[in-house]
């Protein structure tokens, strides 16, 4: 039997058809007993589970957010990037799906083996170029022979975006992505065998009024060493670890050497703004406590001690009489 679950609307339509006599219940039972054959394409070997695909989707949703912020600052215009789809297909199928002339950036991701491919749709790439050259961000749907300056501008934008790619992957794998090559014709690019399974992440990209796609091709050979980390169990498990004795001692030293402001408060007074503006030489301000009362010692603006004023040699000093306790101030 098929394990497909019908929606409520499909169930209602089926019951209505049986009631109206348009469909025979006995015929349905015979069809149900018949063998169901599902076509399987061996060229599209599924090497990643749905759980792993969901993990890849989460990683690249984070990358899309980081890349949106980065390109908005670089291009100084409205940029919106989101994940459109994450699919696993043969490499040959991916190459056939992209334009004959496009912007292909080959990325190495040491220490992982293999290479990753960033494909920038011509609309997106030309909009980036136009903004970097002082234009409004208009685009054309073709790829002409690029000048050295245009090639440098495109590769520079891609290289700077690799920091966002590294950050998005940092929770799963430590990598140092580097741009190794640039190509415009996919027929001249053979990263893996045609039947090799690759994960293609398609990012819907809008730059100003121009919309296009950025495709990221992740070959199986790149993801194979870290495929076990692309699971819900790995994402949910705690990464907290107890600090070592060396780390604890280092933390203590840093705390002990931290500086805090200490103030001995003689007293307080309230005056009006008019009196304040009229203050002059030899004027006296009366405080709210007498000379015989202890001073308040404040540590980081919090009352901590009571003390009396005095001198040590030629320097002013205070002698602590008691520690103040109670409330949140004491806990801090």
Compute the number of strand runs.
10
Report the uncertain regions. Answer: none
Would you tell me the overall average pLDDT? 81
Task: State the separation between the terminal residues, measured CA to CA.
Answer: 67 Å
Strand order of the largest sheet: 1-5-6-3-2-4
Q: Total number of helical segments?
A: 11
CATH fold topology of the largest domain: Chemotaxis protein chec
| Helix and strand sequence | HHHEHEEHHEEEHHHEHEEEH
Q: If you had to describe this structure to a student in words, what would you say it looks like?
A:
The protein is of the alpha+beta class. 36% of the residues lie in helices and 24% in strands. It has helices at residues 8-19, 25-33, 50-75, 91-97, 122-132, 148-169, 220-223, 232-236, 245-256, 273-277, 327-331, and strands at residues 79-90, 103-108, 115-120, 178-183, 197-207, 210-219, 262-265, 295-299, 302-312, 315-323. The strands form two sheets. It has a six-stranded antiparallel beta sheet. A hairpin with a 2-residue loop joins strand 9 and strand 10. Helix 3 crosses helix 6 (148-169). The mean pLDDT is 81.
